[in-house]
C-alpha cells in the first residue's frame, strides 16, 4: 500500500507539465502584445515625444524581462519538478539548462521582479506630475518591499548554502 501511494505521489508531478505548457502560451500572448505595442509605435514614431517614446520602450523592456522570467520558470520548473529535458547533442543548449535548482530559480525570479518593479517605477516617475504624491509614495514603498524581500531571500540562501546557522 505504501509503495502504491509513493508511486502515485511521484507520478503526480506530471500534473505540472500542462501548467508549464500553459506558461509557454502566456509567453506567446506576451509576444503578441509586444509586437502590437511596437506596431502601434512605428507609424507615429516621428511625431512621438521623447518622453512618450521612452515610456513605450520601457514597456517593451518590461515585457522582455517578463518573457525571460517566463522562460526561466517554465524550463527550470519543468526540469526540477517534472523531468529532465533531453536536448540532442547537435542542438543549441542554454548554458544554465540543468544547472538551476529551485533555490537559484527563486533568486532569479526575485531579481527579475525587482528589475520589473524598477522599470515600472521609472515609468511612474516619468509621469510623476500626473500622479498624486500619496500614490507615488506607495509605488516606492512597494518597490522597496520587493528589494528588501529579494535581499533577505538572497541573504538567507547564502547563509543556508554556507552552512551557517540563521
UniProtKB/TrEMBL annotation:
Domain of life from the UniProt record: Bacteria
GO cellular component entries: plasma membrane
Membrane protein topology class: Multi-pass membrane protein
UniProt keyword list: Cell membrane, Membrane, Transmembrane, Transmembrane helix
Annotated transmembrane regions: 12-34, 54-75, 138-156
Primary location recorded for the protein, binned into one broad class: membrane
Localization: Cell membrane
Signal peptide interval: none
Protein family membership: Belongs to the UPF0114 family.
NCBIfam families, per the entry: HI0507
Protein's name in the database: UPF0114 protein SAMN05216586_11831
Record lineage: Bacteria, Pseudomonadati, Pseudomonadota, Gammaproteobacteria, Pseudomonadales
Amino acid at each position: 500500500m505504501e509503495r502504491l501511494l509513493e508511486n502515485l505521489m511521484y507520478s503526480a508531478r506530471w500534473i505540472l507539465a500542462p501548467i508549464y505548457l500553459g506558461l509557454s502560451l502566456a509567453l506567446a500572448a506576451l509576444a503578441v502584445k509586444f509586437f502590437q505595442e511596437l506596431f502601434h509605435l512605428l507609424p507615429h514614431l516621428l511625431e512621438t515625444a521623447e518622453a512618450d517614446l521612452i515610456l513605450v520602450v520601457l514597456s517593451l523592456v518590461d515585457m522582455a524581462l517578463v518573457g525571460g522570467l517566463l522562460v526561466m520558470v517554465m524550463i527550470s520548473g519543468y526540469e526540477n519538478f517534472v523531468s529532465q529535458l533531453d536536448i540532442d547533442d547537435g542542438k543549441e543548449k542554454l548554458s544554465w539548462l540543468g544547472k538551476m535548482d529551485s533555490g537559484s530559480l527563486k533568486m532569479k525570479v526575485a531579481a527579475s521582479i525587482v528589475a520589473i518593479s524598477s522599470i515600472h517605477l521609472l515609468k511612474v516617475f516619468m509621469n510623476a506630475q500626473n500622479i498624486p504624491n500619496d500614490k507615488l509614495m506607495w509605488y516606492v514603498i512597494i518597490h522597496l518591499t520587493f528589494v528588501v524581500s529579494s535581499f533577505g531571500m538572497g541573504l538567507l540562501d547564502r547563509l543556508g548554502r554556507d552552512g551557517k546557522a540563521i
